[in-house]
Every structure is written in C-alpha cells, then in structure tokens.
C-alpha cells in the first residue's frame, strides 16, 4: 500500500525549496514515503518530517538535510535545528521553514547536503564553495 501524500503541491514554502534544490546540477524530485525528496543519485533533502523522540509531531514545512560535517555540531546546538525521525540516526538535521525563512541560509544548507552525496561530475558543475579545495 503506497504512503498517503503528506504535502500540498501549492505550498509556497515547498515552491521555494523546489526552486533552490532543483537548480542544483542533475537534481531531481521524487515523492517517497508521501513526501517530496530531492536527489542526485542519492537523496540530499526531504520536505516535511518530524522530530526524533517519543511523540512524532508532524512538521510539514521542515527541511531535512545532511549538514556539512564541519558545521554539524554548531548547527545541532542552534535551537532552530532538530534531529529528525528516521534519518537523524544517519546524521541528518531538520529546520522548520516559513515564508520568512532566511532563504540564503536554506540555499547554503541544500548546497552542502548536495555536495556530500552528488557524483563528482555534478559537484564539478557548482561554483567552488569556501570549504572546497581549488580544482586543478
């Protein structure tokens, strides 16, 4: 039995996430477990989720992502971020979004998550980030 759809395609916050995520090279969207996921081979982001813990209160506008390893500890200490159910055990974090979110920050989080899972050919199409070594 397929999962029920747990998002509204007309959600303006999802539209912003889609715009950013799908601008990354070779990125695609696929609905999995009833939620939009963004992939480049492997999944680098999911829209919607819940906090890890006894009560799994749905957070329909949360962005789940793989933080840059060098920033994970700092992000985990920031009260805006949370450990999500299911994928949190694999190092993922979540951030609740709204129309007033810092979309530059969201783009940076998606970029960092993408760089960790995308094939080298896709990452090579991105501008060099401050954390990257120069390319030969």
From TrEMBL:
It comes from the Bacteria. InterPro entries: YjbR-like_sf (IPR038056), YjbR/MT2646/Rv2570-like (IPR058532). It holds the Pfam family YjbR. Keywords: DNA-binding. One of its GO terms (molecular function) is DNA binding. The keyword DNA-binding applies. This is MmcQ/YjbR family DNA-binding protein. It comes from Gordonia alkaliphila.
């Amino acid at each position: 039995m397929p999962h029920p759809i747990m998002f509204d395609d007309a959600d303006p916050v999802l539209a912003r996430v889609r715009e950013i995520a799908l601008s990354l090279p070779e990125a695609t969207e696929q609905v999995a477990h009833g939620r939009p996921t963004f992939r480049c081979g492997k999944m680098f982001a999911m829209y919607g989720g819940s906090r890890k813990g006894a009560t799994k209160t749905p957070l329909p506008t949360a962005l789940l992502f793989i933080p840059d390893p060098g920033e994970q500890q700092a992000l985990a200490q920031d009260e805006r971020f949370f450990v999500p159910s299911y994928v949190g055990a694999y190092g993922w974090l979540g951030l609740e979004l709204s129309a007033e979110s810092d979309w530059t920050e969201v783009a940076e989080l998606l970029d960092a998550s993408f760089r960790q899972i995308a094939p080298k050919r896709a990452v090579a199409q991105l501008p060099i980030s401050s954390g990257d070594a120069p390319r030969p």
